[in-house]
Design goal:
The chain is an alpha+beta fold and 135 residues long. It contains five helices and three strands.
């Protein structure tokens, strides 16, 4: 089980974007577990979220924020952020652990690349595969 006391970002791709005229970091899930990207204000990402390495405690992150910005981030606010990112499955935590466990226990997997890397329908996929083995 993952701990929210030492938050760790999952494999996400951060990208700077503008949203309603403000700079944000958009976190996109590289594994496809979450469909919608998550937007974080750029200062919040640069000063706080980038420290979610799985090694640093919330107290240590709080100290780094104070040292780098001179602003005191209340522990409750930091915990709230961690909980929201856990709920969005951006960090390794109980929400993603439950999703991952459910996925592992399910008997079926959705065809993640159907229609992109191979045919989307059974009939079309059979025809496509047969073409690989035609003399």
């Amino acid at each position: 089980m993952s701990s929210l006391e030492r938050p760790k970002l999952r494999p996400v791709s951060p990208r700077r974007v503008e949203h309603q005229g403000q700079p944000f970091v958009m976190l996109q899930d590289l594994t496809g577990a979450i469909a919608q990207p998550v937007l974080i204000p750029i200062d919040g990402f640069n000063h706080i979220v980038r420290h979610f390495d799985g090694q640093s405690t919330l107290i240590e992150i709080q100290g780094r924020v104070l040292q780098s910005t001179g602003l005191f981030l209340a522990l409750g606010e930091l915990e709230g952020l961690v909980n929201r990112l856990d709920a969005a499955m951006v960090i390794e935590g109980p929400t993603f652990d439950a999703f991952h466990q459910s996925y592992r226990e399910s008997g079926r997997r959705p065809a993640a690349l159907a229609g992109r890397s191979y045919a989307a329908t059974v009939r079309a996929l059979r025809a496509q595969l047969e073409q690989f083995f035609v003399d």
